[in-house]
Automatic annotation (TrEMBL):
Entries under PROSITE patterns matching the protein: SAM_OMT_I
Pfam families hit by this protein: Methyltransf_24
Protein's UniProt name: O-methyltransferase
Molecular function via GO: O-methyltransferase activity
Similarity remark: Belongs to the class I-like SAM-binding methyltransferase superfamily. Cation-dependent O-methyltransferase family.
Entry keywords, A to Z: Methyltransferase, S-adenosyl-L-methionine, Transferase
GO-annotated biological processes: methylation
């Protein structure tokens, strides 16, 4: 992680450095490498899909967005002035810290008078289905402090049920990060789409590595009638950047 790309206190930068180090160490462990190898083999030859057994194995795993991707997401959110952000798939809350920094700093930049009140005019709506991961994420945000924690609204449970309700309370969504199991990518996008502003960004992780799992998502965003323009960038595993540009904006 480069401190030159992120505006944050030394405390937050130090926290992020430690979290990324823990995540990368976990990903390079023998057990996780073997897990993914056998998942690929079983999918290719037996079409075996994700199971509750896999959920059990991954319950204590970070699966955090890599540092370079997090920095890009932060800079995209800053440069587009994103105020209302959705993250589908929070896990241990690492990438959420970057999004909260961006939302808070964008709110401060647009404030003309009076104090900046987190949650009013800017927020990050994060989703996590695993209770233990949600607990760990909240601990990390608390450690990050007032730069981060007050800007986050965490939805714990099935995003297909919870996300539409929370999104409907928001005037518009400026940015969507999809860092979640591939079958949930399209449901998350469709839950948010009614509130996406014209020009909103959607970023999805591992779209080259897990292309087959993203089939429904790509069928949808590549259909011109749905209003998206998309590009797979050459980050590790592929990182999709989509722009919402519907023709009918009335």
């Amino acid at each position: 992680m480069s401190s030159n790309s992120i505006v944050a206190s030394p405390r937050v930068l130090g926290l992020l450095k430690g979290l990324h180090a823990a995540s990368l160490a976990q990903e390079s462990s023998f057990s996780l490498v073997v897990f993914w190898l056998f998942k690929v083999i079983r999918y290719r030859f037996a079409k075996e899909k994700w199971s509750s057994r896999d959920d059990d194995f991954m319950r204590d795993k970070f699966i955090a967005l890599e540092p370079d991707k997090c920095e890009l997401v932060y800079l995209l959110a800053r440069t587009t002035g994103a105020l209302n952000i959705v993250e589908a798939g929070t896990s241990f809350g690492v990438s959420t810290i970057y999004l909260a920094l961006a939302a808070g700093q964008n709110a401060a930049a647009k404030a003309t008078s009076g104090p900046i009140i987190p949650g009013q005019g800017a927020k990050v709506i994060a989703t996590e289905n695993e209770p233990e991961k949600a607990k760990r994420a909240k601990q990390h945000w608390k450690e990050a402090g007032e730069e981060v924690e007050p800007w986050i609204t965490l939805l714990e449970g099935d995003l297909r049920e919870l996300l539409p309700l929370e999104v409907n309370k928001t005037s518009q969504i400026d940015f969507l990060l999809l860092d979640i199991w591939t079958p949930m990518a399209l449901p998350a996008l469709q839950a948010v789409q009614p509130k996406l502003r014209h020009g909103a960004l959607i970023v999805a992780d591992n779209t080259a590595k897990s292309r087959a799992g993203y089939k429904d998502f790509f069928d949808y965003v590549c259909n011109p009638s749905n209003g998206f323009k998309t590009l797979t960038t050459p980050f590790k595993g592929g990182l999709e950047v989509c722009v919402y540009l519907p023709e009918n904006t009335a």
